[in-house]
Fold this sequence. Notes:
Elements: E1 9-11, H1 12-20, H2 22-30, H3 40-63, H4 74-86, E2 94-105, E3 108-119, E4 124-129, H5 138-142, H6 145-161, E5 171-176, E6 185-187, H7 191-210, E7 211-212, E8 220-221, H8 235-239
Parallel strand pairs: 1-3, 4-5, 7-8
Antiparallel strand pairs: 2-3, 3-4, 5-6
Amino acid sequence: MNKNLNYFRYSQNSINTYKSCPLKFKFKYIDNINWKYDDFSSEEYYTSLKLGREFHLLCERYFSNIPLGNIENNKFNKWIEKIKTLLPKNDKNLYLPEYEIRYTLNGNEILAKYDLVVIGKNNIDIWDWKTEAKQINYKNVESRIQTIVYLALAKEVIPKIFKLNIKTEDIKMKYYQPEFDEEPIVITYDDEKHEKYIKKLSEYIDLIKRTNYQDNDGDIPIEKNEKHCNYCEFNKLCNN
């Protein structure tokens, strides 16, 4: 195993990076290369990231009961009003925006940072705000690494922290795109899914740890996923 993975903290981003392309994982997490390219094709990507960060901050303020002040972005005004209508705050619920938890699985630490956790008397709802320009659907998100990590850790960690007796089927993941949707995409959960998700996370982490990144530090040859190259920030670095 590569020494950089000795104390590595896994997340949906890092696992998904490996799933997309093991060589990209090497660049980002083994070689620690922070590569940003500034040609025309990348401008839209970084603009979208900035938009997402700003809107997530606005949502964090709203669910933390911090005054929003004057919102100059008309799009954000519309989106926040949609969220207020969709998810009116209730004094009986606990709202945890930008909430981070960690879970140890077979000696490996996994991190999840949620846009919003809403804890009711007998349920937990995980909310994720999506601001990208492309509309998502149930099929897009049901099998995402993000869904697997977020639901698995929610089941294992949150009820213990708050001393709650929550059934697995009362935990839900909700993706919401204010640009397109009036209602969220809801991913339900159950014990069978949970067992499957925990197993899948173990398998992905095992693959990551067994990959040969350099100097025969693993038994699985590293591969480049060429289908991913056109969408990768390391394309120019990797393909000259």
